[in-house]
Sequence to fold (995 residues):
Amino acid sequence: MGKRKKMGLYIHIPFCLKKCNYCDFVSFKADNETKESYMKALLLELRDMPEKYCFDPKEYIISSVYIGGGTPSTMEGSQIYELLKRVRDNYRLSKDAEITIEINPGTVENDSLEIYRQAGLNRISIGLQSANPKELALLGRIHSFEDFKKCYHMVRNKGFDNVNVDIMTALPGQSLEKLGNTLRQLMTLGPDHISAYSLIIEPGTAFYKDYSEGGSRESELPGEEEERRLYYYTRDFLKEWGYHQYEISNFAKKGKESKHNSAYWRRQPYIGLGLNASSLMKEIRYKNTPSTKDYLKDSNNTSSFVENIVLSKEEQMDEFMFLGLRMNRGVFKADFERQFNALLLKRYGEVIKKLLKEELIEEDKERIRLTYKGMDYGNYVFSNFYLGDY
Amino acid sequence: MTNADQSKIRNFCIIAHIDHGKSTLADRIIESTGLLTSREMQAQVLDNMDLERERGITIKSQAVRTIYKAKDGNEYVFNLIDTPGHVDFNYEVSRSLAACDGAILVVDAAQGIEAQTLANVYLALDHDLDVFPVINKIDLPSADPDRVVNEIEDVIGIEAMDAPRISAKNGIGIDEVLEQVVAKIPSPKGNADAPLKALIFDSIYDSYKGAIVFIRLMDGRISRGTPVKLMATKAEFEVVEVGYFGAGQFIPCDELSAGMVGYFTASIKNVSDTRVGDTVTNSKEPCDKPLAGYKKVLSMVYCGMYPADGAKYPDLRDALEKLKLNDASLNYEPETSIALGFGFRCGFLGLLHLEVVQERLEREYNLDLVTTAPGVIYKVYKTNGSVIELTNPSNLPDPSEIDYMEEPVVNAEIMVTKEYVGPIMELCQERRGKYISMEYIEASRALIKYELPLNEIIYDFFDALKSRSRGYASFDYELKGYERANLLKLDILVNHEEVDALSFIVHADTAYERGRKMCEKLKEEIPRHLFEIPIQAAVGGKIIARETVKAMRKDVLAKCYGGDITRKKKLLEKQKEGKKRMRQIGNVEIPQKAFMSVLKLDEDK
Fold:
């Protein structure tokens, strides 16, 4: 038996106490009965995933599990425990696997955290978004900064030594001062990892009507110039405090980079279980239905797919480039050549030459990566690597 | 039907102002004559191009033959030849008229006579056609047929008291129209035993049969095996098939003879051999002289057409050649642009004609086109005494070599109800019009005559006219001649580079205004780049207006959507697609539609 390949496992819990005003993920409020049936459907999908996603579990080892949402902590601790037990019972889970759960302040108690420990969770991701009460209210969050602090300490006191905190930049009316205050407050707590996402006004969210183009409150959003200042400020501030940037929006203390997220950028195989979850397995990209009804009915068979795309070799190469470039480490030529048995420069020589001239990427013998300027124009850079000739 | 009893043939067309119901009446005639059952009728049988049906206008002449059993007990052959109504297509109207012996004039019972009604009637009378009027849309609440009858008699001077009052849409009064076709349209008077003499009034290309040539026989006969000669091109062929026009199909028959309308094929592979307006005769027994044919039409509006993908240049050339076959009014010659590469300078009858050709190229020939701003032909008198006819602004000689320039001027007739006379005259003044006269056709409607520079009306004059008269004004024009004018070439610089395809000729008085608006418009059209892009308008090297496209500060998605890479890819794909519709000028990408910006300068008025 050869060496097992690493894979990630994502489990989507679509339930929230209340949907936030900016959120466009599949998430909603649900009663216990719905949660019960969803659990059953998830367990079925977990049990039958080798057939559904056409892979032999004996060839794989799960190197990271990520329970995301929604707010996974709205499930009973026992349900989370059950989920992870089934993972362990049926599949090979690496001893040093990173096992994360997303929680929101006000949805966890000491007891549930205790169960998380016993379930094997070793990384906690807490949604904060802002330390400013007005901003929290505007975003439609259900907690105060005090609630967050209480939650954070509870997590630490349970002995979790890998904690992420989500914050948001580019909020309406957000000044450097307000952002600075949030960051400084956070530094008194010292999380291991910080995800700092810029607010994007997505269709279908509560924010969309007021803040989209032409909306009545659009002018309250920071302009591009201001948005970039907030971003640079965050980057510089966190660097000062010992968090290094390893991806466009992610910062970590040394050794605390999220393995699970990095696996996406490195195109390692992963299975996403649950409503509307995405997967990449054996160079096929899958996506589950966003309809609860359909998912509950068909979670463990292929009729729940709304996407099922076989990637050509060229498409894999393009993905390798534009996903890899999201990471500060960039893409290594040797990795590309090993994976595709083709020269990187042969396919992308022209693109690279152009982007070098525009100072958006830098190149050395080993690798190619975004410059700071390139990070501002990521989409432009990525779209250049997306040759689309498939 | 090979029986050549000409007294039982009626060759006619329907003429009308746009939207007065010409195509609908044609449908009803075809329906009522029983060649098709109602079930087979698709709405508007004659308009068989998709484009025509969508836009509700008739572009190409089409013909159909039906059999009508009249009240006198005889069966008559009706050859109905459809004509376009728009002013741009006068030439096509003229072709159809030459193949007819009479015409039905359709007038809207509510709107009465409009500018194109007059233009088309005069055209028909020029061709010595007998015209009888039909009052359509009598079912409209605002219909006033008595008033319209008086108008026709007073303004046009043709008998209208017994004009059928109909609703083509609801099938009211169609029988009376058919009876009047028999009674009022003269039968053809050709000689079937004389040498073959037939007029080509249209042709289309079929990849199996070659050119299908639409003819009206004046004298003689034609059948399979007839050796024919096309008198203008001197090309000779042997006829393979003759036939007549079913509804939307070709129906072969044994022979066509004097007075009949039909088609022939002769394995004609070279489309340019079958020139519309040419005379077909028997090469063994030719007629003495060809028919008068049509006068050569002059293109009034020119623009550059370029394939968006340079490699498609040969495809564009082939497509233009095919279109030219049955659209003699389309002219084109190759040209090159620094900005756009290889393409063609094309001449059209008017802006609608341009749009129709552009759409046909894009739809029927699947070409993606970049079109430059349309312009007219200017005459440039050089100091050395020579004159050039300028169709492409970038060919304008250096100002030091120019003595003076002339621009085309048209005689325009605008018909409008009293309350809009003021706004319409104001519009004409704004467009550098010269007032000629105004007369009241009836108490509430006036016919206003102006001389207008053609370049002031080719873009959006028609739209402006409609909007300032709430749709009540109608408009027709004909070329008057050339007049001296103070004209300048306006150049556009994008990121300090002159873009030849964006240059256009303007009157000196409006140069500053147009330059400013052009810069504003381009600022909206050109997407932001990683760097700042100045857009400048210049006359003779002097900058007269400037706008700046600010640099893009960021273009990045912070969010990672979990593992949903497909969603991210869709965004990148969109970005990529957007780029495809761009033209690279220096290091700036200009969207293709920006090259038409000059057309939209008055949009916000």
